[in-house]
Structures are given as structure tokens and as C-alpha cells.
């Protein structure tokens, strides 16, 4: 089966959006997934919503290569941030032709978090964007049940749940529970592998998530089982490999990521490993 893949920004975080489009085109991706807001205080971000020259250059490269934008991240709403903060991000997403917005709710006040998610969905609707809720296991929205409760409560047609195979595994979520959820909630997935042993500290969980994920088939997550529980959709390959990045270019890491994904999902992983070692 021919799957559609997106190059996630976290996989090549210091690479500019212009370079990302070129890399995606060269290595066979259908989409790119841009990060336009910083998650950490020290993280470099390419804020296209504030850089007209770069925005125009990215749009030109998208048009020239045929690569499209799958999703934009990240609308993260802790206690101090209202959804209206992200209007410029929604506008940029629409200008780029993106389909989805990635959101997180690290807020212990569930009523407030749910209200804000619904308002973000309403803000995104005129731009024909879905808003997909991601649930890192160390946040206040820590598992599939918590994310599903929010999406069910807001009851917006453009609301969805974002399954990241790493977070799904670290939350010890159930494939059986995943199968019970409405298929229309799922628009794309973030996909990676990782060691089977789950870190016991928040620091360990974050380190794996941000810096040392595995290519598909090289860890211990049942990636195929998770994906088989959802409809067919594009897969954003979010696979940061900071150690590998010390010696391997962003383009080559992106290439290895998509080749491994293709091999794994088509049952050819053993052959891929043999060719890679040769």
C-alpha cells in the first residue's frame, strides 16, 4: 500500500522551512509539517507568521516542488495562554494551505482547557482547519481518555485527536479503546518507534520525545497495531535523532526515516535493514 508521509519539523528542528521543503521533495515526502511556535524557552523557531519574506519563499518552493503542508504546530494552551493568541498562526496555516493545527492542553483546570479547545476550533473553522489534540503523557492531558473527553465535550466538527505513537505507548493506552472512538476524529498521526522500556521520570520521557526516537521497526512500540486501529491517513514522521544528527545530515536522516517507514509498513523491514547494512 502506498502511504502518504510528512516530514515533521522536530525531526530536523534547526532546518528552515525553505530547506525542509527541498529535503522533503528530494527524499519522497508528500508533505511537510512546520513548527511555528516554540515549545521550550531555548528552542529556535521559524515564525513564518512574522516573516513575510520567508513566507513568500516557502510558498514559492511549495509551488515549485509540489510538496504540501500537512499541519502546523503548536497551539499550546497552558493556564496563561488564551486561544486568540494563535490567530496569526491560523492565518499563516491557511496561507500555506495546511490542513490541520496541532494543539496541546497542559492545564490542570479541565473546564478551562476544554473551553479553550472549543474556542480554538471555532477560530480555525473559517480557515477550514481541523484542530487535533495531542496528549504528551507528562502533561495535564496525559492519555487517550483525557483527550477523547475534551473532543467529545466540545463537539465541534473540526475537532480531532492526534495520535503520536510514542505518547500512545508511554501513556499505556489501549488499542481496543482506540478502536472504539469515532473514525472521523482522526485526521493524521505522528509516527515513530522508541525503546520498549518506558522511562520512569518526566525528564526521561521528554528526552526520548524531543531527542532520541527510533525509526520504524528499530524500537519496541507496536506501531503497526496502533495505526491499524485507525483509518488510513497521512503519517507525519516525527523522529528526532540528536545523536545521529552529530554525524548525519538532515537530508540523510529524513531519507532514512521515510525509507524505514515504507519498509516497515509494507512488511519489508528485514530487507531494508539488510540493504542499509550493505
Automatic annotation (TrEMBL):
Residues 21-260 form the Xylose isomerase-like TIM barrel domain. The keyword Isomerase applies. Keywords: Isomerase. GO terms for molecular function: isomerase activity. It comes from the Bacteria. Pfam families: AP_endonuc_2 (PF01261). This is Sugar phosphate isomerase/epimerase.
Amino acid at each position: 500500500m502506498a502511504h502518504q508521509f510528512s516530514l515533521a519539523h522536530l525531526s530536523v528542528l534547526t532546518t528552515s522551512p525553505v530547506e525542509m521543503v527541498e529535503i522533503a521533495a528530494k527524499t519522497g515526502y508528500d508533505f511537510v509539517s512546520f513548527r511555528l511556535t516554540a515549545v521550550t524557552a531555548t528552542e529556535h523557531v521559524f515564525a513564518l507568521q512574522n516573516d513575510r519574506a520567508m513566507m513568500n519563499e516557502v510558498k514559492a518552493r511549495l509551488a515549485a516542488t509540489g510538496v504540501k503542508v500537512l499541519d502546523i504546530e503548536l497551539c499550546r494552551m497552558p493556564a496563561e495562554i488564551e486561544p486568540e493568541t494563535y490567530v496569526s498562526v491560523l492565518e499563516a496555516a491557511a496561507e500555506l494551505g495546511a490542513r490541520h493545527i496541532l494543539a496541546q492542553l497542559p492545564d490542570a483546570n479541565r473546564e478551562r482547557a476544554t473551553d479553550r479547545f472549543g474556542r480554538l476550533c471555532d477560530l480555525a473553522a473559517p480557515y477550514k482547519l481541523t484542530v487535533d489534540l495531542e496528549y504528551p503523557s507528562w502533561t495535564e492531558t496525559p492519555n487517550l481518555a483525557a483527550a477523547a473527553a475534551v473532543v467529545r465535550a466540545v463537539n465541534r466538527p473540526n475537532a480531532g485527536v492526534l495520535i503520536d505513537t510514542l505518547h500512545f505507548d508511554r501513556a499505556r493506552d489501549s488499542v481496543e479503546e482506540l478502536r472504539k472512538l469515532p473514525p472521523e476524529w482522526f485526521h493524521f498521526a505522528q509516527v515513530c518507534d522508541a525503546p520498549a522500556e518506558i522511562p520512569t521520570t518526566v525528564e526521561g520521557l521528554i528526552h526520548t520525545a524531543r531527542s532520541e526516537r527510533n525509526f520504524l521497526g528499530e524500537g519496541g512500540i507496536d506501531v503497526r497495531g496502533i495505526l491499524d486501529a485507525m483509518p488510513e491517513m497521512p503519517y507525519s514522521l516525527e523522529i528526532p535523532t540528536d545523536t545521529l544528527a552529530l554525524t548525519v545530515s538532515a537530508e540523510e536522516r529524513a531519507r532514512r526515516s521515510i525509507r524505514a517507514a515504507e519498509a516497515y509498513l509494507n512488511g519489508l523491514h528485514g530487507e531494508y535493514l539488510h540493504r542499509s547494512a550493505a
